[in-house]
């Protein structure tokens, strides 16, 4: 099993967050997950460490891949992982944005009427900056 500090390092190097807003009957709903693609020899120890940290996860075999991937989907567990993650650079450049969006979910902003617009604005910030810089 790994300590919290070691798990931070593993998250920094392997975790890939994803976030999207999906249309449902009553409007929009956030969908989020964290996927970890690990070497085979790390799967069991990381899985045991996540269980010891009370972070629910699922091991799924992706098509065309010989090794399972770990997926974290529950809101509470994702928020715990976000709290563990430092603000330092990570392998996946989307962590800073993901943490910001998940804080919005934590604060209940996804329940408001114009939430889709606010979430999309945060998710598209970098693209807007690139457009402004390239037009100069």
In short:
The chain has 136 residues and is α+β, with helices and mostly antiparallel strands. It has helices spanning 4-14, 40-52, 75-84, 95-106, 115-123, 125-134, and strands at 15-24, 27-37, 58-61, 68-72.
Give the secondary structure arrangement, pairings included:
Blueprint: H1 4-14, E1 15-24, E2 27-37, H2 40-52, E3 58-61, E4 68-72, H3 75-84, H4 95-106, H5 115-123, H6 125-134
Antiparallel strand pairs: 1-2, 2-4, 3-4
Helix pairs in contact: 3-4
Structure description:
- The relative contact order is 0.17.
- α3 packs across α4 (95-106).
- The protein is α+β, with helices and mostly antiparallel strands.
- The chain contains 6 helices and 4 strands.
- It has helices at residues 4-14, 40-52, 75-84, 95-106, 115-123, 125-134, and strands spanning 15-24, 27-37, 58-61, 68-72.
- The chain is globular and about 45 Å long.
- It has one domain (4-134): Homing endonucleases (Endonuclease I-creI).
- The protein has a 4-stranded antiparallel sheet.
- The chain is 48% helix and 22% strand.
């Amino acid at each position: 099993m790994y300590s919290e500090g070691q798990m931070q390092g593993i998250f920094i190097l392997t975790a890939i967050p994803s976030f999207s807003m999906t249309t449902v009957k009553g409007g929009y709903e956030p969908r989020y997950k964290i996927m970890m693609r690990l070497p085979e020899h790390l799967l069991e120890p990381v899985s045991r460490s996540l269980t010891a940290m009370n972070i629910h996860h699922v091991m799924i075999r992706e098509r065309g891949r010989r090794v399972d991937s770990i997926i974290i989907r529950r809101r509470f567990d994702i928020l715990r992982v976000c709290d563990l993650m430092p603000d330092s650079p990570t392998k996946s450049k989307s962590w800073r944005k993901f943490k910001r969006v998940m804080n919005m979910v934590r604060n209940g902003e996804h329940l408001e009427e114009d939430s889709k617009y606010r979430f999309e604005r945060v998710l598209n910030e970098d693209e807007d900056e690139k457009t402004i810089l390239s037009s100069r």
